[in-house]
Design goal:
It contains nine helices and twelve strands. The chain has 291 residues and is α/β, with parallel strands linked by helices. The protein has one domain: NAD(P)-binding Rossmann-like Domain (Rossmann fold, 3-Layer(aba) Sandwich). Helix 1 crosses helix 6 and helix 3 packs parallel to helix 4. The longest helix has 22 residues. The protein is globular, with a radius of gyration of 19 Å. The two termini are 36 Å apart.
């Protein structure tokens, strides 16, 4: 039976990565929406959309992700990352829609120093992290059928991200200072998109607990932003000199987690997925950028 899948935030990195992987498949019909036709801050528009469309699965890729700007726009960040999730979760429960919601490592305070489990205590240190946590909490309170996937350090060949910014700066500048005391696992959006598409086709979603389960997903391996940049430049023969600097020497409006490596054992076990190593995925992204 053909199922209709709604992908919100279709112009973002993950939304565009899902589109790039989508194949002609009699099992699924995809509908991609972004702010023009599906403004998550406009509750009436969202309600009207679901009155006119039959949806079986929602993949909520939409989010307010401008981490520093969120410190200046907390109400807007909350409207998108929390209140809109509340509305989607309520609709999903009323209409028996399976909802996949994407969250972030920023729900943690970054002082754990061993890979975070899904059950570890949350303690966001920024407006962005707090609003994303509120989205998780309201999702779990309403408890539609669905899952939450936390991810980290997302990049792709699409939109604005660390990889594309550093490639540009590396060609423009002779030297760059890059933070070395923030540790995490990069996530290629194409890999996350593939996992999501595999999940919606998996029989495992039929055996999920009633309470909304949370899963962690990133690429395998661990690095700092400095390590990430050094490897990126080496792969592209960029001669810009990279200097390691401390977070205190690169002040930002929002506090970043010092350590945001996440334990992925749960998603690997339940959905039988094998996240690629971050360096292999970066190489794939760079090949796609060159095409």
């Amino acid at each position: 039976m053909n199922k209709t899948i709604l992908v919100t935030g279709a112009k973002g990195q993950l939304g565009r990565s899902i589109q790039a992987l989508e194949k002609d498949d009699s099992l699924f019909t995809f509908i991609y929406v972004d702010i023009d036709e599906f403004n998550l801050c406009n509750a009436a528009m969202v309600d009207t959309f679901f009155e006119k469309k039959h949806i079986d699965i929602i993949i909520n890729c939409a989010a307010y992700t401008a981490v520093d700007k969120a410190e200046l726009e907390p109400k807007l960040a909350d409207a998108i990352n929390h209140l809109a999730v509340k509305q989607l979760a309520t609709i999903a429960k009323q209409k028996n829609i399976f909802l996949i919601h994407i969250s972030t490592d920023y729900v943690f305070n970054g002082h754990h120093f061993q890979p975070y489990l899904e059950t570890d205590a949350v303690d966001p240190q920024s407006v962005y992290g707090m609003t994303k946590l509120r989205g998780e909490q309201v999702f779990q309170k309403i408890a539609p059928k669905g899952i939450i996937i936390r991810t980290s350090w997302v990049y792709s060949e699409f939109g604005h991200n660390f990889v594309k910014t550093m490639l540009r700066l590396g060609k423009e500048k002779e030297r760059l200072g890059v933070v070395f005391d923030q540790i995490g696992s990069p996530t290629y959006a194409g890999d996350l998109a593939k996992v999501i598409l595999d999940i919606i086709q998996s029989n495992a979603i039929q055996s999920l607990p009633i309470s909304t389960p949370i899963y962690h997903y990133s690429n395998e391996g661990v690095c700092s932003w400095y390590d990430f940049t050094q490897h990126l430049f080496a792969m592209n023969q960029i001669t810009c000199q990279v200097t390691p600097i401390e977070t205190k020497d690169y002040p930002t409006a929002a506090q970043r987690p010092f350590y945001s490596v996440m334990n992925k054992a749960k998603i690997k076990l339940h959905f039988k997925c094998t996240p690629p190593y971050w360096q292999d995925s970066l190489a794939l992204c760079l090949r796609n950028l060159q095409e």
